[in-house]
Design goal:
Radius of gyration: 51 Å
Number of strands: 0
Structural class: mainly alpha
Order of helices and strands: H
Number of helices: 1
Low-confidence stretches: none
Shape: rod-shaped
Oligomer: single chain
Length: 119
Amino acid sequence: DKKKKDADKKKKDTDKKKQDADKKKKQDADKKKKDDDKKKKDADKKKKDTDKKKQDADKKKKQDADKIKRSKTLIRRRSKMQIKRKRMMIRRRKMQIRRKKTQIKRSKTLIRRRSKMQI
């Protein structure tokens, strides 16, 4: 009877130890899985942040390039306008000079005619 009790007790202890070992194994596996998931999540987040930074940098670079292009275009347009204005001014001056010359010629001929008329 005593041997049977000892055997039962031994069996219970063995079963309990086995259960505890299984439980510990499961806990360790769960912890490892959790740690792996966290590492993966962190890596994904880091990658996402890096990609976003790269995208932002590319966007800024493109904006700067567009800005430079726009400013160059504006400068080109302005210089064209300035050239047009200068040409117009030159044209006006030429016309003024031409008018003055014709006026002088007219007045000279008028003077000549008057002097002839008087004589």
